[in-house]
Amino acid sequence: MSNQTEIVTHDEARGEEPVSAPSGRKRAEHLSNEEMDMAALAHASVLLGFITSGLAGIVVALLIWLSYKDRSDYVATQSLQAVVFQLLLVPLTIAGGLAIVLSALTICLIPLALLLIPLLIGLPLAELVYGCYAAYQTYYGADFDYWIVGQFVRDQLRSPSKV
What we know:
It is a single chain. The chain is mainly alpha-helical. The chain has one domain. It contains seven helices and two strands; from the N terminus they run E-H-E-H-H-H-H-H-H. The protein has helices spanning 10-13, 33-44, 46-51, 55-68, 73-105, 110-139, 149-158, and strands at 5-6, 20-21. It has a two-stranded antiparallel sheet. It is elongated, with a radius of gyration of 19 Å.
């Protein structure tokens, strides 16, 4: 038997198959397909960010957050997490690239540059995989939290001075 938890939603009343969240995560019952799609799109915007050095992915996730922040708490939380996650990794990637260039310019620091190259390549790839995993989870209605970023965003959205 599968380890997926099946949740019956309003989709069953329309004759559609119920959707279950992957990996046994709890799926919110009140989510519409549009909410799940938009949350997944916000996380999947990391693909655009990968192609455009972060800018387009951040813009797409930010636009989704701006358009859904008053309509859906789920989409607002997920898209704001995607924005913060991508914003945090852009400076790290740029700093890594700058460190490699500066190290390569100084002959005695070339070994340092060679050590940083896997980090420079690995960090964007890890961001891409993690963002796509988040998109997959939210596409099926799971409540996804990025490591560290997720709790920070939730705390900010709960505070009295709402973002």
